From TrEMBL:
Gene name per UniProt: mdh
EC number, UniProt record: 1.1.1.37
GO terms for biological process, alphabetical: lactate metabolic process; tricarboxylic acid cycle
Functional description taken from the UniProt entry: Catalyzes the reversible oxidation of malate to oxaloacetate.
Gene Ontology molecular functions: L-lactate dehydrogenase (NAD+) activity; L-malate dehydrogenase (NAD+) activity
A family per Pfam: Ldh_1_C
Domain named Lactate/malate dehydrogenase N-terminal: residues: 7-147
Protein's name in the database: Malate dehydrogenase
Length: 313
């Protein structure tokens, strides 16, 4: 059998979906199918064709197509779901729950029918609850249903640490646990720059300011943009997760996973450090937490649980 290119479907051809498609193509991760609603079929085809016409200039051997027909997405290896409405200034991500739950459910019914073996990455907000909706609708094993929040939240946190110290972003390591809300938990104790704990390099009150800015990092962009939310860093995060799966990289990345006892939570989707490789979420890594860290995580888990209750009734 000839070896075929991988197939990546991106559902939702808006700001994040289109940017994700282009960034994935730029890494030649596979052929890309961009999907949006039938009313937007022509603009979706137009965006895909415009991206495709950039490939000779960039030297990229990938195909990029736009559609509203899920038959065109058949047998995708990875499906990325960005469909849904985004918040505006003054809104919380949780305000999107009812509209986006309906959208994610209908998208997942189509994905289940056409790409039953896909690894599915969910971005639509409120993303912890939307990952739960996707898991319920798809009926796929838990390792194949993965929510995106921690890669982005960690990227923001690391950006601010690098800025603070005026050092390369490449040397900053850290991660953010918990739900994708304002009570997410950046883990200071496990953060370092070139192996040096940040607590040795940055005064405590500046670390606290960085933690706080990271927690509300999504809102900072929403307020600056005025009519939508972040999409460059979210798209880069989705592409890093997709690459980890398609290249079986076994990256340690914080993603939204189904917890069944880990960290003391059950039947809860929330951000935790994991190993991501060719079989999706291959392992949830459990870290020892201090009482203070666990209390912060409990608070975040409670917020996620409250949103999940809205969709479970
Ligand atoms: N989890 C995260 O870290 C994170 C980061 C960024 C954005 N988001 C969320 O991702 C979602 C998309 O954000 P955006 O900025 O790309 O929004 P956007 O409005 O630019 O794009 C959303 C697209 O989804 C499409 N869509 C709606 N219903 C659909 C359906 N049933 N099938 C296919 N497509 C459908 C819309 O037509 C639109 O083109 C929002 O809910 C936003 O809050 C989450
Ligand atoms: O903040 C938002 O509404 C979008 C996204 O969740 C983000 O963190 O940028």
């Amino acid at each position: 059998m000839p070896i075929k290119r991988r197939k990546i479907t991106v559902v939702g051809a808006g700001f994040t979906g289109a940017t994700t498609a282009l960034m994935a193509a730029q890494k030649e991760l596979g052929d890309i199918v961009l999907v949006d609603i039938p009313q937007l079929e022509n603009p979706t085809k137009g965006k895909a064709l415009d991206m495709l016409e950039s490939t000779p200039v960039q030297g990229l051997d990938v195909n990029i197509t736009g559609t509203s027909n899920y038959e065109d997405t058949k047998d995708s290896d990875v499906v990325i779901i960005t469909a849904g409405i985004a918040r505006k200034p003054g809104m919380s991500r949780d305000d999107l729950v009812n509209t986006n739950a309906g959208i994610v459910k209908s998208v997942c019914e189509n994905v289940k029918a056409t790409s039953p073996n896909a690894y599915v990455i969910i971005l639509s907000n409120p993303v912890d609850a939307m990952t739960y909706v996707a898991y319920q609708t798809l009926g796929f094993p838990k390792n194949r249903v993965i929510g995106q929040s921690g890669v982005l939240d960690t990227a923001r946190y690391c950006t601010f640490i690098a800025q603070e110290l005026n050092v390369s972003v490449e040397d900053v390591r850290g991660f953010v646990l918990g739900g994708h809300g304002d009570d997410m938990v950046p883990l200071v104790r496990y953060s370092n720059v070139g192996g040096i704990p940040i607590e040795k390099l940055i005064p405590a009150e500046r670390i606290e300011a960085i933690v706080q800015r990271s927690r509300v990092g999504g809102g900072e962009i929403v307020n600056l943009l005025g009519n939508g939310s972040a999409y460059y860093a979210p798209a880069a995060s989705l592409v890093q997760m997709t690459e980890a799966i398609l290249k079986d990289k076994k990256r340690i990345l914080p993603v939204i996973a189904l917890l069944e006892g880990e960290y003391g939570y059950n039947h809860l989707f929330m951000g935790v450090p994991t190993i991501i490789g060719g079989d999706g979420i291959e392992k949830v890594i459990e870290l020892e937490l201090t009482a203070e860290e666990k209390a912060a995580l409990d608070k975040s888990a409670e917020s996620v649980q409250n949103v999940i209750k809205v969709v479970t009734g």
